[in-house]
Design a protein that fits this description.
Blueprint lengths: L10 E18 L10 E17 L4 E6 L13 H13 L5 E7 L9 H17 L5 H11 L3 H6 L2 E5 L4 E4 L6 E7 L6 H11 L12 H9 L2 H7 L1 E2 L2 H7 L3 H10 L4 E4 L6 E5 L2 H14 L4 E7 L5 E8 L1
Parallel strand pairs: 1-8, 3-4
Antiparallel strand pairs: 1-2, 1-12, 2-4, 2-5, 5-6, 7-10, 7-11, 9-10
Helix pairs in contact: 1-2, 1-3, 2-3, 5-8, 6-7
This protein binds 4-diphosphocytidyl-2-C-methyl-D-erythritol and adenosine-5'-triphosphate.
4-diphosphocytidyl-2-C-methyl-D-erythritol binds next to strand 1, strand 2 and helix 5.
Length: 314
């Protein structure tokens, strides 16, 4: 038997898991001078996960696996690489790291998979390099990387304002069960916001207080009320760019979903079920009708990015 104490230490790994999200409500105001739109949103983190594994390397590099891994850039455009570089710059670290992304969240699907990778990479590198940044500083770097990134660090349920990066935790009771209809060809977030501008030229303000009833439904654990209040100002724009979504939405509705909404900038369709079993029924209906390239079921809310294991690899 090998004496592990004498075995050469060839590497250490840190493993971080981060969830995807659905916007239970997304209200969008007029485009600002910096190109961003003010939003009022309620995020819920759901149990569709990105797993990011940090191991030793000379430089900062990334690889990806999962059903849509071929759609993920592996150069400096990758949000996980950008996150690692941003943390290194902030802390003066000159070490390398390799980040492997096990992608469970649909790519370019409106569920913030890339943002989840960025959040997970920040935590993974912080643990791997031992930089130990306070949560607020990680949040600041996250906000620089993208509007959705801070929420994937935080997880659970939160109200987002500003670009979606200013967060307040929201109370939520119980578990909500979702079916997601996924498309292989994604939608570009800037293109969807651009289409929103085209469809709403007269929009002059953000309706920021429209979610009082939705937040009440969450506090009460009232899934039927929540379902009826799901809302997305970007939905028309996503449907304009991907007209087939109308059928996906209506198949999920006909399967008895409590509510159906396009997730974020789309094209993933999120349908709220009455139970875990009902979410499976809705997913099966979308598959049977051929209105999604694949389906997922998940529940929420779940925690944000967290270290799930850090170990010596022999
Ligand atoms: C649609 C949502 O997922 C809803 O949570 C987010 O608003 C998008 O967040 P994200 O993908 O993290 O967005 P970023 O990577 O920061 O920005 C990408 C692009 O989306 C547009 N964008 C994004 C967020 C926002 N509040 N207004 C915008 O207009 C801008 O064109 C921006 O250049
Ligand atoms: N780690 C990454 N994983 C996936 N895509 C990435 C990553 N880094 C950069 N990208 C690029 O970002 C684009 C959008 O990817 P992502 O999966 O985050 O979309 P999304 O879920 O629609 O985002 P959001 O909901 O935050 O708007 C991809 O098409 C890809 O080119």
């Amino acid at each position: 038997m090998t004496d592990l104490r004498l075995a050469p230490r060839t590497g250490r790994e840190v493993r971080v898991r981060a969830p995807g999200k659905v916007n239970l409500s997304l209200r969008v105001g007029p485009r600002r001078a910096d190109g961003y739109h003010p939003v009022a949103t309620v995020f819920q983190a759901v149990s569709v996960y990105e797993d990011v594994v940090a191991t030793a390397a000379d430089d900062i590099s990334v690889s990806a696996s999962g059903p849509q891994a071929d759609l993920v850039p592996t150069d400096d455009q990758n949000l996980a690489v950008r996150a690692a570089r941003a943390l290194a710059a902030r802390t003066g670290i000159a070490d390398g790291v390799h980040l492997h992304l096990h992608k469970g969240v649909p790519v370019a699907g409106g569920m913030a998979g890339g943002s989840a990778d960025a959040a997970a990479a920040l935590l993974a590198c912080d643990a791997f390099w031992g930089t130990g940044l306070p949560r607020e500083e990680l949040h600041e770097i996250a906000a620089e990387l993208g509007a959705d990134v801070p929420f994937l660090l935080m997880g659970q349920t939160a109200v987002g304002s500003g670009r979606g990066d200013l967060l307040t935790a929201a109370m939520s009771r119980g578990e909500y069960h979702w079916a997601f209809g996924v498309r292989e060809s994604g939608l570009s977030t800037p293109a969807v916001y651009g289409e929103f501008d085209r469809l709403h030229p007269g929009r002059d303000r953000l309706e920021a207080d429209g979610d009082v009833a939705l937040l009440h439904a969450l506090r009460a654990g009232d899934a039927p009320a929540l379902g009826a209040l799901l809302h997305n100002d970007l939905q028309d724009a996503a449907v304009e760019l991907a007209p087939d979504l109308v059928e996906t939405l209506s198949v999920a509705e006909d399967a008895g979903a409590l509510g159906v909404v396009v997730s974020g900038s789309g094209p993933t369709v999120a349908a709220l079920g009455r139970s875990r079993q009902h979410a499976l029924v809705i997913a099966a209906a979308m598959t049977a009708a051929g209105v999604a390239d694949s389906v997922l079921t998940a529940s929420g809310p779940v925690p944000g990015a967290r270290v799930v294991a850090g170990s010596d690899v022999l």
